[in-house]
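wait is this the right file?? whatever heres the structure
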């Protein structure tokens, strides 16, 4: 019998082979030192300047006692400093904990406590909320850094700009393995408390490769980043990929339609990601037709399906923009499947097929694979996958059972391998013994002229258990009535699928990532059946 071959492994070999999140920027800086990496307001950094700022920030954190494996919470709107902290922690092997800046003190306190954060970096305008959260969590001895917007640093908080713009620019010498945890993302989930999703360089970089290959991305891109960087969609499908490729990133503080349109024109932007709600806001904005958007070539959407009628409108008003649909979730870093540009109209509403480094199937409640055309839970197998849920072995075991990651989404795969996401399990409406997919009802309502946005969900009902309910936002200047909606749907949907209640609103509640907050709508309209 031949002797089993065991490859040599030494610390020296491991160091030579290191390929982690912290390495990507350095390599882009070596390839493109004078190219503009980031533009944020009046600040512009070349890749060499960006790389040096990251080293200074990492060394400043190390000088304050932060070491590999520690957790650093970052609470901030989008900024160039956010990007620097992101890569600085990766260089040290420190686990970054991006925190939703819209959370209250109690919610942030839970994340600080659960993650075991030893350092906190916060934007100056958020210091009162974050300080209260630190008090509630008992986090008294943490390293504190403030991202200033022109104000004087709060007492007890270090000026993060000084970490980045002065000090030692040499790379810190820390070995980081490709599956060491580098990110702890807290999901906005449906439970009372969010889950902490652990991601590694291997999870993230294999996901970047899938984005690049299947998403048609290149180093020539000029991209606007306006959705929150605390969310892995903007941070990991787009900003980090641009840094990896050596593309130019323009960071905006938020998804203001006027600012996005003006930036596309002024900076000759070629690439843009927005959830459908933000694409709709761009199409409806009075500046849309007056701005020069001719440089835009690539558009991406995710977070929820794009209504078919909006897809058709985009193809008419942005005929030179190729569109991709990215579907996934935080636990997949986050990409799982992609619908390509040439498939948008032909397969409108589809989430596409599994991305390059992903396998996807649909299973029944016993995890048996289902044949084409049958609805079941969507599961994935991929190196994109997270390392599990931090400090929660039970939820990790349930999600990763039988060798697949269980998404919690319901879907169906057709004979050509295309996935249609039917609904989140929690969003499936069970009414009168029938299952109704909210997505199907929403698509039907979007076919009605004058509808700008719609959300469909279930509310408690004494007879039907749950009643299908629609909240409709009319387009500006359009008057819609409940009777108009009912007459339209009478010829489109079966009776049990049609809303029992139709409510009109000026806007839908959304989180900072542009996702419609159906949970809030369910609470707001829970008593409709009692009227």
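ok assuming it is, sequence goes like this
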């Amino acid at each position: 019998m031949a002797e089993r071959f065991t490859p040599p492994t030494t610390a020296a070999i491991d160091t030579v082979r290191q390929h982690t999140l912290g390495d990507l920027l350095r390599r882009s800086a070596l390839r493109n030192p004078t190219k503009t990496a980031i533009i944020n307001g009046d600040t512009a950094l070349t890749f060499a300047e960006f790389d040096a700022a990251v080293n200074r920030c990492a060394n400043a954190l190390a000088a304050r006692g932060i070491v590999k494996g520690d957790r650093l919470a970052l609470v901030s709107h989008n900024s160039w400093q956010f990007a620097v902290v992101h890569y600085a922690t990766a260089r040290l092997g420190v686990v970054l904990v991006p925190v939703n800046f819209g959370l209250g003190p109690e919610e942030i306190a839970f994340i600080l406590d659960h993650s075991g954060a030893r350092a906190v970096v916060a934007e100056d305008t958020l210091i009162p909320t974050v300080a209260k959260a630190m008090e509630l969590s008992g986090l008294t001895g943490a390293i504190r850094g403030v991202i200033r917007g022109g104000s004087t640093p709060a007492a007890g908080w270090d000026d993060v700009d000084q970490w980045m713009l002065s000090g030692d620019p040499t790379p810190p010498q820390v070995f980081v393995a490709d599956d060491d945890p580098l990110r702890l993302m807290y999901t906005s989930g449906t439970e009372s408390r969010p889950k902490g999703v652990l991601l590694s360089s291997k999870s993230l970089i294999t996901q970047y490769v899938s984005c690049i290959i299947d998403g048609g991305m290149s180093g020539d891109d000029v991209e606007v980043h306006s959705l929150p960087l605390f969310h892995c969609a903007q941070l990991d499908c787009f900003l980090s990929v641009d840094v990896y490729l050596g593309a130019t990133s323009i960071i905006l503080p938020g998804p203001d339609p006027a600012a996005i349109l003006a930036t596309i024109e002024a900076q000759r932007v070629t690439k843009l990601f927005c959830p459908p709600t933000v694409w709709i806001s761009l199409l409806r904005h009075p500046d849309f037709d007056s701005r020069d958007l001719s440089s835009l070539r690539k558009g991406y959407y995710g977070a929820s399906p794009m209504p078919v009628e909006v897809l058709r409108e985009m193809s008419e008003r942005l005929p030179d923009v190729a569109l991709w649909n990215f579907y996934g979730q935080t636990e997949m870093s986050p990409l799982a499947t992609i619908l390509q540009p040439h498939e948008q109209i032909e397969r409108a509403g589809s989430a596409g097929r599994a991305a390059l480094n992903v396998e996807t199937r649909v299973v029944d409640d016993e995890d048996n694979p289902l044949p084409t055309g049958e609805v079941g839970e969507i599961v994935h197998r991929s190196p994109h996958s997270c390392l599990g849920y931090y400090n929660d072995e039970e939820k990790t075991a349930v999600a990763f059972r039988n060798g697949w990651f269980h998404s919690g989404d319901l879907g169906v795969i057709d004979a050509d391998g295309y996935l249609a996401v039917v609904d989140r399990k929690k969003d499936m409406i069970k009414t009168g013994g029938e299952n109704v997919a909210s997505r199907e009802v929403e698509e039907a309502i979007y076919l009605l002229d004058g509808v700008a946005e719609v959300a469909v969900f279930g509310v408690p009902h004494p007879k039907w258990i749950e009643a299908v309910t629609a909240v409709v936002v009319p387009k500006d200047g359009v008057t819609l009535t409940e009777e108009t909606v009912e007459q339209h749907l009478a010829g489109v949907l079966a009776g049990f699928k049609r809303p029992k209640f139709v409510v009109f609103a000026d806007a839908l509640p959304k989180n900072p990532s542009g996702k419609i907050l159906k949970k809030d709508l369910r609470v707001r309209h829970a008593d409709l059946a009692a009227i």
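The mean pLDDT is 93. so i think its the right one actually
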